[in-house]
Design brief:
By secondary structure, this protein is an alpha/beta fold. It folds into 2 domains: about 5-115 and about 300-315, Nucleotidyltransferase, domain 5 (2-Layer Sandwich); about 125-295, ATPase, nucleotide binding domain (Nucleotidyltransferase, domain 5), CATH 3.30.420.40. It is built from 9 helices and 10 strands. Strand 6 and strand 7 (about 140-150) form a beta hairpin. The longest helix is centred in the last third of the chain and has 26 residues, at about 235-260. The protein is globular and about 65 Å long. Bound molecules: 5'-O-[(R)-(carboxyoxy)(hydroxy)phosphoryl]adenosine and zinc ion. The site of zinc ion has 4 residues, from helix 3. 5'-O-[(R)-(carboxyoxy)(hydroxy)phosphoryl]adenosine binds near residues 165, 167 and 180.
Amino acid sequence: MMHMTVLGIETSCDETSAAVVNDQAILSNIIRTQTIHQNYGGVVPEFASRAHLKQLVPIINMALAEAELSLCDLDGIAVTHGPGLAGSLLVGLGVAKGLALSLNIPFIGVNHIEGHIVAGAGESPAIDHPYIAMVASGGHSLLIFVEKPCSYKIIGQTIDDAAGEAFDKVAKVLELGYPGGPLIEKKAREGNDQAVNFPRALLDKNNLDFSFSGLKTSVLYYVQNKKRRAETFSVADVAASFQKAVVDVLVEKSFRALGLYGCKQLVLAGGVIRNSALRAEFESRCAREQIVLRIPDPVLCTDNAGMIARAGHFRLQRGERSDFGLDVHPNLSIERDLA
Ligand code: KG4
Ligand code: ZN
């Protein structure tokens, strides 16, 4: 195998990130979370694109400096080209094409979700196939059957809100701030997760889909009722009980998928996987049921270019290349390779 040094670029949402990998080893992974959106309680697409435009090239230079390499050491470029915000993706893809053109090296468009999955699956030693990937991020809740490398079959997904979106919305209801995941986790540590019995949707049905919108609404009604009756309630208890409801569903559905597909290996992916209560639940259940579990390092869970560089490196090694006509795909599906 020829060794390859690949620059990864990630600009799909509100993290501007560049990373350098040598084979699957991450030499640097610079991530800047845009702070401007905090004033708006959510990502404002135009602000995101402009912040990427300002920050991306300096961040690429930082990633190269930290890896103690220069542009001429690169053998390829990996860049997220979907799914995500069109204007944000355009910034990363434009820069990637410019670099590939001027350095005369190949580039590859990477699916952001594949990046999340490969973040954990790419850890050495490489995980065997087949495995189940459970992706829980701000935009996605997916169960994916990965039968062989680069072959992804969606076997379950959310019918309404994503898991991370539910964390963000409930944090707003509880007036904890944005982004909600880490703030709920912190608050939940002081609370009792059995205090309120929030609904766990679709658990009785024999399917692998998720629904988190009803859970969010029931937290909202709980809080509104308490306020209307001028009763006090513990925000920590509500946060802990809500978090437990999400974790229970994600664990239960993942194990249902493992059973249905006869898999013994599970890869967790996405920003919500940073949650330590979730990690603990998955770890103990996997130990009990003898399932091999891969959880990426917390920095590799939320959006970062290290995961994109890893996924792109793997595809470049297989001889895959994108051409300069490549466009961004805001709704890009992970199943594209099955076609
Ligand atoms: O994967 P990611 O960085 O971006 C997307 O591709 O969507 O995920 C961000 C999501 C946000 O909804 C955020 O609230 C959630 O991940 N998140 C968490 C935690 N840290 C981030 N959710 C629960 N617990 C956490 N500690
Ligand atoms: Zn993501």
